[in-house]
Design brief:
single chain; 12 strands; 9 helices; elongated; 3-stranded antiparallel sheet; Arc Repressor Mutant, subunit A; Beta-Lactamase; 2 domains; alpha+beta
C-alpha cells in the first residue's frame, strides 16, 4: 500500500489507471486491484469517473493534521538525550534565522544540569557556527560574509571555507576551544554568538587520529526534503581533551543521529545537496 501511495504522491496533479500502477510498481494485476480497492474504501485514494486514481480526502485530512502538529524536534529529542548521556555533554538544537541562531531545544547530561543558556536564546551567527550551516551552500556563505559585521579576518575566512570542506566530507564540524576558554569543558556556549570575531572557539579543517584536541563543540546538520540544512545539533561541554580517534568517533555518532532525524524531516532518506 505504501508503494502505491508514495508513487501517486510523487506525481501531484496526475491520475493513474490500474494498468499504469501495475506497470510502474511491477505488481500483479490482482494484487494491485485489491490494494487499490482497500485504499479507496478507507478514503486514502479516490477513484474518478474515468477509473483512474488520485489521493483521497482522508489522506489529505491526515496530511493537514500532521502538518499542523509536525515538529522535527519531537524526533530529535530522543536522539539528543542519547547523545547528551553518551558523551556527558549538552546537546542543543540551533535554527538559523536570518543572521541569528536560535536555541530551540536541548538535552543535558546530569553533570550539566545547570546549563546557563536559556531556551529561546538568539545569538549572532559567527564564522565557527557558520561552518556547519553553510558547508553545503558555499554561495550562501559568501553572501553572509558580505553582510555580517564585524567581518572575519582574512585568515579566519580562509579557515572557515577549509573547515566547510572537512564538514562536507565527514558530515560534521569540529570547534576547538581557544586559549582562555575553560579547559574543563564547561558547557556554556554563550560566547559563540558574541559580537566580535574574537570568540572562544575555532573550527579546524583536519583531524590527526593520534593527536589530542580540546574540543569546544561538535556540530552537524539536519537536512530537509530539498537536501538543504534545516537546523543543526551542537554538542558542547566535553571534559578535558580527546584523541583524534575519539573526536572522529563522536562526530560520526552525531552524524548518524542527524541522518536519522533528516530521514524523518524529509519523509525519506535525504541526501545533502551542495548548492553553488
Amino acid at each position: 500500500m505504501a508503494a502505491i501511495l508514495n508513487f501517486i504522491a510523487d506525481h501531484p496533479g496526475q491520475a493513474f489507471a490500474l494498468t499504469d500502477l501495475v506497470r510502474a510498481l511491477k505488481l500483479s494485476r490482482a494484487t494491485c486491484h485489491a490494494l487499490l480497492t482497500g485504499l479507496v474504501d478507507v478514503g486514502y485514494l479516490y477513484r474518478t469517473s474515468d477509473k483512474t486514481y488520485v489521493l483521497g480526502p482522508a489522506l489529505a485530512a491526515i496530511g493537514r493534521t500532521a502538518a499542523q502538529h509536525f515538529s522535527p524536534l519531537q524526533v530529535a529529542q530522543p536522539e539528543m538525550r542519547s547523545l547528551a548521556d553518551e558523551f556527558d555533554v549538552v546537546c542543543s538544537a540551533y535554527f538559523l534565522e536570518g543572521d541569528m541562531i536560535h536555541l530551540r531545544d536541548r538535552a543535558a547530561s546530569l553533570s550539566h544540569v545547570g546549563y546557563p543558556v536559556p531556551l529561546g536564546t538568539r545569538m549572532k551567527l559567527r564564522s565557527p557556527q557558520a561552518v556547519a550551516f553553510f558547508a553545503w551552500a558555499p554561495a550562501e556563505a559568501e553572501a553572509w560574509l558580505e553582510t555580517t559585521e564585524p567581518k572575519p579576518s582574512a585568515e579566519r575566512r580562509e579557515l572557515m571555507f577549509k573547515s566547510m570542506e572537512f564538514a562536507r566530507e565527514n558530515g560534521f564540524a569540529v570547534l576547538l576551544r581557544r586559549p582562555g576558554f575553560d579547559i574543563a569543558g564547561e558547557a556554556d556556549d554563550r560566547g559563540m554568538g558574541v559580537d566580535t570575531d574574537e570568540i572562544p572557539v575555532t573550527p579546524i579543517d583536519g583531524i590527526d587520529q593520534a593527536s589530542s584536541y580540546a574540543v569546544g563543540a561538535l556540530m552537524a546538520p539536519i537536512f530537509d526534503e530539498r537536501g538543504q540544512v534545516s537546523f543543526c545539533l551542537l554538542l558542547a561541554g566535553f571534559h578535558g581533551t580527546m584523541s583524534g580517534a575519539q573526536v572522529m568517533a563522536a562526530g560520526q555518532r552525531l552524524r548518524a543521529a542527524c541522518r536519522r532525524i533528516s530521514a524523518f524531516v524529509a519523509g525519506r532518506d535525504s541526501e545533502a545537496r551542495v548548492t553553488a
